[in-house]
């Protein structure tokens, strides 16, 4: 196990909570490393939404112990087009499919120092299902690492530069405005943008101001406040969320539905003209 890695395994998936998939993963880990503490980051990532999984893990990783972090959002599970990998980064170990779901979190802790394709079948659960690598490959591998297995013994070393990396969310300052995209939409319909509070601060925007929000050809005037509860129920509001990013919400409502803003949609913010 990497120096400094604690006996903690975190688990992020799109498995949902209605079936036994998450319980099976917990059971496999407990059978190999009963001393490991498991932290469920979440299991309600929209099915196959790799970017959403990557964003959740990257925004959560600063608050997690230096353990082994599993992320399984894996629409290409069982195919020959994607690898199963373990990545060492920032004193942590990341385990999952090489489809980019780990990439933003790896970058957030300083970048990969080593990477391995998971080819050592001795640490897999047998038989291996073609569609449940979380149970049969990723969780056993993570448990063996916590139990003392060296990461280098998990498989074949690969150059970190060959890992699949998701494109960074777009955000830029241009012509007195911030341009970005919808990074994610949470279960409340709050719309998280790739634009930071620092970006707005550069434009001179402060709490209490009003933003011009451009959605294609539509323009809205939205108050910028410290929380969504600062406006009456049913009203739109922009605020800085817990990740330091600008979010648009409806107090007691669903901003994504009202505005028709899916992940990836382009948004432009500027100080409203008085």
Which structural class do you get from the secondary structure elements?
Answer: alpha+beta
Major sheet characteristics: 8 strands, antiparallel
Radius of gyration: 21 Å
User: In CATH, what is the homologous superfamily of the largest domain?
Assistant: S-adenosyl-l-methionine hydroxide adenosyltransferase, N-terminal
Low-confidence stretches: none
- CATH architecture descriptor name of the largest domain: 3-Layer(aba) Sandwich
Keywords: S-adenosyl-L-methionine
Organism: Herbidospora solisilvae
Family: Belongs to the SAM hydrolase / SAM-dependent halogenase family.
Pfam families: SAM_HAT_C, SAM_HAT_N
What would a concise description of this structure say?
With 274 residues, this protein is α+β, with helices and mostly antiparallel strands.
Question: Can you give a write-up of this model?
Answer:
The chain is of the alpha+beta class and 274 residues long. The chain has two domains: 8-162, S-adenosyl-l-methionine hydroxide adenosyltransferase, N-terminal (Rossmann fold, 3-Layer(aba) Sandwich), CATH 3.40.50; 171-271, Elongation Factor Tu (Ef-tu), domain 3 (Beta Barrel). 20% of the residues lie in helices and 32% in strands. It is built from six helices and 15 strands. The strands form two sheets. Strands 8, 9, 10, 11, 12, 13, 14 and 15 form an eight-stranded antiparallel β-sheet that branches. A seven-stranded mixed β-sheet has the order 2-1-3-5-4-6-7, with helices on both faces. A hairpin with a 4-residue loop joins strand 13 (236-240) and strand 14. Helix 1 runs parallel beside helix 4. It starts with 7 loop residues before the first strand and ends with a strand.
């Amino acid at each position: 196990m990497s120096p400094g890695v604690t006996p903690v395994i975190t688990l992020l998936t799109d498995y949902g909570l209605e079936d036994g998939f998450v319980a099976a993963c917990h059971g496999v880990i407990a059978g190999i490393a009963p001393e490991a503490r498991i932290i469920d980051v979440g299991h309600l990532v929209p099915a196959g939404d790799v970017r959403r999984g990557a964003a959740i893990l990257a925004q959560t990783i600063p608050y997690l112990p230096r353990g082994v972090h599993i992320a399984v959002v894996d629409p290409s599970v069982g195919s020959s087009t994607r690898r199963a990998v373990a990545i060492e980064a920032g004193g942590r170990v990341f385990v999952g499919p090489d489809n980019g779901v780990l990439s933003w979190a790896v970058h957030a802790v300083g970048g990969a120092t080593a990477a391995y394709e998971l080819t050592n079948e001795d640490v897999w659960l047998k038989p291996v299902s073609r569609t449940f690598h979380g149970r049969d490959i990723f969780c056993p591998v993570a448990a063996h690492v916590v139990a003392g297995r060296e990461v280098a013994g998990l498989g074949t070393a690969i150059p970190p530069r060959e890992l699949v990396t998701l494109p960074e969310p777009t955000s830029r300052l241009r012509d007195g405005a911030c341009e970005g995209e919808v990074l994610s939409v949470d279960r409340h319909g709050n719309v998280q943008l790739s634009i930071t509070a620092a970006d707005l601060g550069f434009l001179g925007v402060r709490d209490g101001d009003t933003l011009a929000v451009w959605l294609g050809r539509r323009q809205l005037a939205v108050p910028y406040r410290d929380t969504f509860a600062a406006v009456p129920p049913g009203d739109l509001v922009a605020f800085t969320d817990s990740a330091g990013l600008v979010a648009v919400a409806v107090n007691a409502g669903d901003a994504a539905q009202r505005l028709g803003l899916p992940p990836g949609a382009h948004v432009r913010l500027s100080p409203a003209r008085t």
